[in-house]
Amino acid sequence: MPELPDLVIIQERLIPELIDRKIESIEVVDPIVVRDLTGGALETAFKGAVFQKIERHGPFLNFAFEKMNIVIHPMLSGRFSLDPKYKRKDLCIRFNTDGPVLNYMDDTRMGKVYFLKPEELGQIPKYKEQGVDLLSEEFTESLFLKLMDKSRKQTRVFLMDQTKLSALGNAYADEVLFAAKIHPKTPCNQLAPEDKSLLYKSIKEVLFTSIDYIRKKNAPLEVKVRDHVKVRNRKNEPCPVCGTTIRRANVLGYDSFFCPNCQQSKGQQFIDWGNV
């Protein structure tokens, strides 16, 4: 899915293209991705609506217009494009007669696009339940330690709990744990104070360096940049630090990639990762 660093760049690149533009028309190509809360009046409700801003809220992008909002949750494979000739699209929003065209496409159809009023944001599943924004000033080390205090969850599971931390997906959860040298299955209550402190610093470092990398890469808007990741989806490749073969494990139903040498497990595991 487009994760936090991706959404930051999408937000940065779309705002100057769309600012003060009026919606000319909305074409719903695939209704399965759309949640229309306007009561069937989508076209009339948004016709002529002026774009004001994009607010990033965890894994959601909130496109704010006059009195209306379009909230997009890209989920696993949602993508955006400003190419008016882009062939594969599920939703197409045209701005002005000669203005830009915003396309949204989703190969797995897992993402959702909500058309609604600002006071209806609470009707979007998980929107109001988001925890602290990991890129905000409110995300301090003291708050992080407080949120983790007494948790018995596996560390990777805790990192991906969006009601606590908003929001890490699979790719950057793996990258953060690698940077912090923590095995993904390690319970939070088995981490030493210095481990927790390094984990907090790793979250900030990985996210901000990834944002900077993706920004400089300047790839097409619809391209998901992942060539900078060190362990995610790199099973059987050598660890970039020690050369040990990167492994994959199942953590609460999700694939997790890690180095068994750099991220040694604490406590007894069903699998001896150093010998597989």
TrEMBL record:
Positions of the FPG-type domain: 230-264
Residue ranges occupied by any Formamidopyrimidine-DNA glycosylase catalytic domain in the UniProt entry: 2-111
InterPro entries, per the entry: FPG_cat, FPG_N, H2TH_FPG, Ribosomal_uS13-like_H2TH, Znf_DNA_glyclase/AP_lyase, Znf_FPG/IleRS
Superkingdom as given in the UniProt entry: Bacteria
Keyword check for Magnesium: no
GO BP terms, alphabetized: base-excision repair
SMART domains registered for this protein in UniProt: Fapy_DNA_glyco, H2TH
Single Gene Ontology MF annotation: 8-oxo-7,8-dihydroguanine DNA N-glycosylase activity
A Pfam family it matches: zf-FPG_IleRS
Keyword annotations: DNA damage, DNA repair, DNA-binding, Glycosidase, Hydrolase, Lyase, Metal-binding, Multifunctional enzyme, Zinc, Zinc-finger
Catalytic activity: Hydrolysis of DNA containing ring-opened 7-methylguanine residues, releasing 2,6-diamino-4-hydroxy-5-(N-methyl)formamidopyrimidine
Cofactor(s) required for function per UniProt: Zn(2+)
The family this protein is said to belong to: Belongs to the FPG family.
Entry protein name: DNA-formamidopyrimidine glycosylase
UniProt source species: Leptospira tipperaryensis
